[in-house]
Each structure stands twice: as structure tokens, then as C-alpha cells.
UniProtKB/TrEMBL annotation, chains A, B:
The keyword Transferase applies. This is GST. GO terms for molecular function: glutathione transferase activity. SUPFAM superfamilies: GST C-terminal domain-like, Thioredoxin-like. Residues 92-220 form the GST C-terminal domain. Belongs to the GST superfamily. It comes from the Eukaryota. The keyword Transferase applies. Residues 3-85 form the GST N-terminal domain. It holds the Pfam family GST_C_3. It comes from Mytilus coruscus.
Amino acid sequence: MAENMFLYWGSGSVPCWKAMIALEEKGFSGYKNKLISFDNNEMKGEDVLKLNPRGEVPTFTDGDVVVNESGAICEYLESTYKDKGTQLIPSGTKQRALVLQRMNEAVANLMHKMLLDYLYEFMETKEEDMNPDTLARKTQTLKDELNRWNDYLGQTGAYLTGPDFTMADVYFFPFIGFGVRLGLNLNSFPNIKSYYERLSSRPSIKATWPPHWKESPGSFKPLTGKM
Amino acid sequence: MAENMFLYWGSGSVPCWKAMIALEEKGFSGYKNKLISFDNNEMKGEDVLKLNPRGEVPTFTDGDVVVNESGAICEYLESTYKDKGTQLIPSGTKQRALVLQRMNEAVANLMHKMLLDYLYEFMETKEEDMNPDTLARKTQTLKDELNRWNDYLGQTGAYLTGPDFTMADVYFFPFIGFGVRLGLNLNSFPNIKSYYERLSSRPSIKATWPPHWKESPGSFKPLTGKM
């Protein structure tokens, strides 16, 4: 089945990483793929655009089925190949409700509180040029958010929703990985820290680790010691 | 089954409306509920907080299952009660892929390009006080986005992904409804306009129309004639 699949992806993109972890977990290692360069604007290339008029990655095909948007790819894989690989969305009602909630919570909160409003701002602006009140407020918002996830992990143990790796982890881990790459210090969030360290060696995550991160250290270290 | 369900909701909230349309479509009219007041900060009341520590609505329970986050509630209802009411996520692979993609596209794009970066800004700032370049850029971004959805509807006809009402419509319609309430003029987007008018009288949507919108006209008319 993997031989009928094709993924356009970019290295270091949270949505791409998410889709790639799901592909590995569902047992589709070896799918065809093309690594596009964000620097060269290759997501706006003709090959991507004809499948995804938005010109974004991940862009994915499975035979003649086109699915874009990372969340859609993850849910498509799980619902189409329910019995293959890791079951990422549990059958039990209560557990499924929790997994769905954490998936949605991760997207709704981490994308902004962590990435768009915080880390990206540090990439654009020197810390000394930031308004100190804005900086303090945003730092507190992110701290509160990370404390919440740290507590979730304190209650559930090994993974985000219990003893099994689920789609909630697929959605959550890349945010943390990206944060750490950009200098997020996890020392104040011990449960997230040990989760991050443990999951870093999980086969699906190891296999999909953004390749350029392995070659060069992160160039942004804005948050060291700040949390 | 509806008698075991309880929803905390606020009038005029896009996420609440989404969950409520799904509840109606799945045949759960008559579920217990509490309308909270945003003005009085009731989403931070003890009853909500004990179910949803974020203090947000929609907050939902089905017996002893708690599910928060509008997307999670929608998917929980569909996966738990697959054979009840409207089938909102199709079984066919290709059609399901499209529905999942449009659901994710709506959340990823409309929440920001339409609501947070555009309409909310008009609620806070007088048009004459806005930077004209920023205003022009944001207007163009929203126009491009709406043209995209207008084209989707041009291809599919009655609903967002084809002849049947699906979860894609549940996710999309409240954004348009909210936009119109805030003054969005749909004349340049004729497919969205006729879709909006047609769906406004669909039972699930009529039954869940934000009650305070029926009592008073929208007080913001920022976009009249602008698109």
C-alpha cells in the first residue's frame, strides 16, 4: 500500500512532521515522497499546486485520493487503515473522547500560544527590542499552557492520554520538538521533558526527525533559562 | 440518549454553534443545556470549570463522558453514534478524504483570515484609524480565501463537498453566519451567498441560530460594500 502513497513535505514543518509520524505508525514506511525546499518556495511549484491549490505542505496522495491538511491526512490514514499498524484513535467511547479532545486542544492552543505568537516573534525580533509587558504576558500565557500539558502527563503517565501512544501524541509531540529546536527550556516542565526524551527514540519519531535539524544546531536560542 | 447529554454554550460563538448543529443533525434535539453569558464571564463559573479547566464553551458531557473543544464534540458524536441521524463523515474513501480536508481547511484558514485577523480587528478599531496598507492586505487575503470557498461550492453544488450535507458544512457554515452578522457582504461570492441563504432554513441551523441575533441587529457593519 505504501507504494501507492506520495507525500510532499518540508523539513522542520510541524504539520509535515505530524503527518509523517502518522504514516510511520500506521506501517507505511517507504512511501514515495519529495522533500521540498521552503527557501526556494517549492511548495508553490507546479507539482504541488496541481494537487493542492493552496501551495502548502503536507500534500498527500494515496492512489487517486488526494488529501491535504495535516489533520485530514492523519484522520484519513486512521479511518481508512483502521486495522493496520498502531490504532491511533481508540474504540472505547471514553478514551476516544479524550484523544479527540487533546488533538483539538493541541491545535487550538499550541499553534498560537507557542508558535505564532511566541516563538516566531522571537525569530523576527530581538528580545531587547520587545515591549517588556507584551513579552511578560506572552511568556506567562505559554508557561500556563505548558503547565497544563505537564499536568496532563502527570495524570496519564507514559503518553498524553494513558498507557498507549495515540493520535493525541501524534498531534502534540511535533510542537514540543519544534519548541525545543527553537530553544524552549523544558526544565520547569519535568513531565514534558521526560516525555520528550522518551519519545525522541520512538521509531516513528526517530525516522521522521527533521533531517536538517540533525545536520545543524538550532540557530535560535531565545528562551534558554527563561521558563 | 439526548437526555443524558448536557451542553454549556454561549450565544453567537462559532465553536458552540458548530457543536450545536452537529447535535441537531445527529438527532439529539432536546439535550439538556445551559446558555452562559460571555458578558458575565460565566464560562469561568465553577460548573464549567470542573468539567473544562480552560473555562471555555462549548463544554459537553454525554453521561459520564466529558468532551470539550468543538471539533472533538463533533467527531465524538459522529464516531459514537454513526448510524443515528445524518451521516456526517462519509464511508467512501475518496469522499471521506475530501470532507476531512475541508473540515481542517475551514478551521486552519477561516478562524484567522476571517475572524481573528479581520473581523475582530474591525470590532476594536475604526476603519479610518487602520493602517491603509494593512487593511488592503488583510482585505485581499480574506477575499482570496472566500473566492476559494466560492469556487469549491461552484464545483460541488448543493453542499461544500457534494450533494450531501456533511461535517464540512457543520464546520464551515458558522464562520459564514458569523461573518454576515458582522457585516460581511456576500454579493461578490454568489455561490456562498446562495448556500448561506439556503442553509439558513435548514432545520439544524434554524434551531441553533444564535438567539440574541434574532433579537437585535448586528451592531458592526464594517464591511458593507467592501468586498
